[in-house]
From TrEMBL, chain A:
Matching PANTHER family: NICKEL ABC TRANSPORTER, ATP-BINDING PROTEIN (PTHR43297:SF13), OLIGOPEPTIDE TRANSPORT ATP-BINDING PROTEIN APPD (PTHR43297)
Lineage, broadest ranks: Bacteria, Pseudomonadati, Pseudomonadota, Alphaproteobacteria, Rhodobacterales
UniProt similarity note: Belongs to the ABC transporter superfamily.
Main enzyme class: translocase
Protein's UniProt name: Nickel import system ATP-binding protein NikD
UniProtKB/TrEMBL annotation, chain B:
Residue span(s) of domain ABC transmembrane type-1: 97-327
Entry similarity comment: Belongs to the binding-protein-dependent transport system permease family.
Classification of source organism: Bacteria, Pseudomonadati, Pseudomonadota, Alphaproteobacteria, Rhodobacterales
Record CDD domains: TM_PBP2
Source organism (scientific name): Allosediminivita pacifica
Protein name: Peptide/nickel transport system permease protein
Length: 337, 336
């Protein structure tokens, strides 16, 4: 069976299927003489058409690894051991492969952070956009160039015609970030993933860039996954929030419900870090350490203010608690507690 | 404009560089024991005759004064006489240096074709069979001496199979030499329409070029492989992949990023092989410049040695200037 057949049979379901569906994504790094280090553990994620989902987690939670797994570029010898990925119902495994039914940039586009290292230093900005457009949309050089200029204008780069001939090293960080966004949006992808794309920017530029992304998603059929360390961003720009902790989804909820009443102690932890109340911070951050050598079953137990003996012995499952919410905790903070 | 200024600046630096090279090599050569006057006059010469010749040749003067005299002559285009050939060194080198250049240039072209091709192919498929073969080849080419390989080729292709001509010079001694225009037998015979000489020269070039090409392909292969590996592992190539760019475009971008390293290795090899080809030149009776210089060293014939140093120094400086200009063209960041 060829890839083409698969696409045809799923065409009817595609309308109903989520834009991106991740099912039990597990990525492990083999270790010499030890059990594998599981960097992502059975991560589920669904993104529907027109939806903006925020994925929040601290450094090392596996946010970037998740995007790289989707993009088929797992760094440093990690292995995608199990799980399925579907785009509009079409399963895919290796996006960069020329034969993949789902194409990067055209279907799923990634906005990278640190774009000055990601742009090719010896090609002009224009050439890099034109390459992507020509390859995926099959336009002529002239049409592709015109589209590239339009894209640069759309991401509010001043004087786009002359910027086409600029070299990446001549751009400021904010400019380079916009170029990367222009590349990501240039082929009208069905899903845009922003991997911490704004964290390196000035706050004002960050705002502009995020507003721009939101506008562009709203103006089309695109869905977006915004990955960030900054939970405040999700409050402003996302429809749904997913919290990742040490490679596991610990909470998932619609935005308003989440900020109104977060269920998982880690979510409260994150919010408390931004709160103006020192009392709140102390209550959630001052946690007595575990006894030396204890390996708690719940990955958050060592930092949890609500820790019980059960948390050390039994790993909590991610369970549904209605209204589109899921939480991975034995003792979630629910109404009345 | 900027590039012209750069070239001028580089050419200005050539003067002190050349002076330094000449100075050092002159004194190093003077350190070699051996008296040309004794060698020239033979074992039966009287002490008086030797002293007289030494005075004639200026060998009795202090070394620094000898150097100044030599420098003065060089500036007037006089590289002195070789007592072995009894001809001016300049005219000797004008016929011998092109022979070496022709050999080394063609050999390195072959080495680049092999090294670049295998290097790129093996970097693009890290687990492929080509990679394994290329790794063995890199190891072998580093371990096999070129003169030994040359002898094996002569044994197989001349003695056993009879495909190659006798390893004696640049073309068959039965042919009348073509008029010298550029010094390259291939080019000169083509210009003058001497196709018999052209074909003969080609067949005489085959084995030495194959020898030097196969040996020198090793370093080029290794440099290509490792810098392609690094380029393919870089962030911008990962990004290009995540943008779904096709394989051949990824390969081109990676090669472009790897090119400065590869060019460096090729240029170093080129300058180095001009002298290092001497063993292969001897095996094939090539009559090249390296052979000439080595004979000079062995016979205390200093002028050919110094002349060879000057010729190869100028050539190296030209090669490195070209390399710098290539960097300039390849990397927009160096253009400032």
């Amino acid at each position: 069976m060829t890839y083409q057949d698969k696409t045809d049979t799923t065409e009817a379901q595609a309308v109903a299927a989520p834009v991106l569906e991740l099912e039990g994504i597990t990525v492990a790094y083999p270790r010499y003489g030890e059990s594998d280090h599981v960097a992502l553990d059975a991560v589920d994620l669904k993104i529907r058409r027109g939806e903006i989902v925020g994925l929040v987690g601290e450094t090392g939670a596996g946010k970037t690894l998740l995007t790289r797994t989707v993009m088929g570029a797992i760094p440093g010898g990690g292995e995608h051991t199990s799980g399925a990925m579907r785009y509009n119902g079409t399963p895919f495994t290796d996006l960069p492969d020329d034969k993949s039914p789902v194409r990067p940039a055209k279907d799923i586009a990634l906005i990278v952070s640190n774009p000055r290292r990601e742009l090719n230093p010896v090609l002009t900005v224009g050439q890099q956009i034109v390459n992507v457009i020509r390859h995926h949309l099959g336009l002529s050089e002239k049409e592709a160039r015109a589209r590239a200029v339009d894209m640069l204008r759309a991401v509010a780069i001043p004087d786009p015609e002359s910027r086409m001939d600029a070299w990446p090293h001549e751009l400021s960080g904010g400019m380079a970030q916009r170029v990367v966004i222009a590349i990501a949006l240039s082929c009208d992808p069905g899903l845009v993933i922003s991997d911490d794309a704004t964290s390196a920017l000035d706050v004002t530029v960050q705002l502009q860039v995020l507003n721009l992304m939101k506008e562009m998603v709203a103006g089309s059929e695109t869905a977006a996954l915004i990955i960030t360390r900054d939970i405040a961003i999700t409050a402003h720009y996302c429809d749904r929030v997913v919290i990742l902790y040490k490679g596991e989804v610990v909470e998932e909820a619609p935005r308003d419900a989440f900020f109104d009443r977060p269920h998982h102690p880690y979510s409260i932890n994150l919010l408390a870090a931004f709160a103006h109340s020192p009392a709140l911070r102390e209550a959630w951050w001052d946690v007595p350490p575990l006894a030396d050598g204890t390996r708690p079953a719940c990955r958050f137990a060592d930092r949890c203010a609500r820790r019980q003996p059960r948390c050390v012995s039994e790993a909590p499952a991610l369970r549904d608690c209605g209204a589109g919410r899921r939480v991975r905790c034995h003792y979630p903070v629910e109404a009345g507690t | 404009m900027q590039i012209l200024r750069y070239i001028l600046k580089r050419l200005l630096f050539v003067i002190p560089q050349m002076l330094g090279i000449l100075f050092i090599s002159f004194f190093l050569i003077k350190l070699i024991p051996g008296d040309p006057a004794v060698l020239m006059l033979g074992p039966n010469a009287t002490a008086d005759a030797v002293a007289k010749l030494r005075a004639e040749m200026g060998l009795d003067l202090p070394v620094f004064q000898q150097f100044m005299i030599y420098l003065g002559n060089v500036l007037q285009g006089d590289l002195g006489m070789s007592w072995q050939s009894a001809r001016p060194v300049l005219s000797d080198l004008m016929t011998r240096f092109p022979a070496t250049l022709e050999l080394v240039t063609l050999s390195l072209l072959l080495a680049v074709v092999i090294g670049l091709g295998l290097g790129i192919a093996s970097a693009m498929r890290p687990r492929g069979a080509v990679r394994k073969a290329a790794n063995y080849y890199g190891l072998l080419s580093g371990a096999i001496p070129d003169f030994w390989l040359a002898l094996v080729f002569i044994f197989v292709f001349y003695t056993l199979l009879g495909w190659a001509p006798a390893p004696l010079g640049r073309y068959s001694i039965m042919l009348i030499p073509p008029q010298t225009i550029t010094g390259s037998v291939l080019v000169d015979s083509l210009i003058t329409g001497r196709f018999d000489v052209f074909m003969s020269a080609l067949s005489h070039l085959a084995l030495p070029v194959l020898t030097l090409g196969l040996v020198n392909a090793g370093p080029i292969l290794k440099a290509t492989q490792s810098s392609m590996d690094r380029a393919l592992g870089s962030d911008f190539i990962a990004y290009a992949r995540m943008n779904g760019l096709p394989r051949r475009m990824i390969r081109r971008q990676a090669l472009r990023a790897a090119l400065p390293n590869i060019i460096t290795i090729i240029s170093v090899l080129y300058s180095f092989t001009i002298g290092a080809a001497v063993l292969v030149e001897i095996v094939f009776g090539w009559g090249g410049a390296g052979q000439y210089a080595v004979a000079g060293v062995l016979n205390s014939d200093l002028n050919p040695v110094l002349g060879f140093v000057i010729f190869s120094a100028v050539l190296s400086l030209i090669v490195y200037l070209i390399v710098d200009l290539l960097y300039f063209a390849l990397d927009p960041r160096t253009r400032g």
